[in-house]
Amino acid sequence: MLVLTRKSNQSIMIGDEIEVSVLAVMGEKVRIGIQAPRAIPVFRKEVYLEIQQDRASEGASAAVSDALERLKND
User: Fold this and answer.
1) Domain range for residue 72?
2) What's the rounded Cα separation, in Å, for the pair 72 and 15?
3) Count of structural domains, the chain
4) Where are the alpha helices (DSSP H) in the chain?
5) What is the pTM of this model?
6) 34/18 same-domain check
7) Together in a domain, 73 and 47
8) Residue 33 pairs with which residues in a beta bridge?
């Protein structure tokens, strides 16, 4: 993991297209801005993990449905 120190109004670049800016520091909270192409999804980690969990559940449900369908056809 790369750890950087930034102040308000400073940024870091990720590749050529993603800029992460520190907008404000208020006590223990940091407000950041992310500028990225629309094709690159950007989520808070807890939202991303929920999406991944939903996809895994949908995949498991689809696998069970497929297996039941194959049993019916055999």
Assistant:
1) 43-74
2) 51
3) 2
4) 45-73
5) 0.70
6) yes
7) yes
8) 21
Q: What is the pLDDT of residue 38?
A: 94
DSSP-derived secondary structure letter, 49: H
Q: In this structure, are 19 and 32 located in the same domain?
A: yes
Q: Phi-psi region for residue 27, left (φ > 0), alpha (ψ -120 to 50) or beta?
A: left
Full pLDDT tens readout for the chain, 74 residues: 999 999 999 999 999 999 999 999 999 999 999 999 999 999 999 999 998 888 888 776 666 666 667 766 76
Q: How far is CA 59 from CA 20, 52, 70, in A?
A: 33, 10, 16
Give the residue from 33, 31, 37, 2 showing the smallest Cα distance to 16.
37
Q: Which of 41, 47, 21, 42 is nearest to 33 (CA)?
A: 21
pLDDT at 74: 62
d(CA 19, CA 15): 8
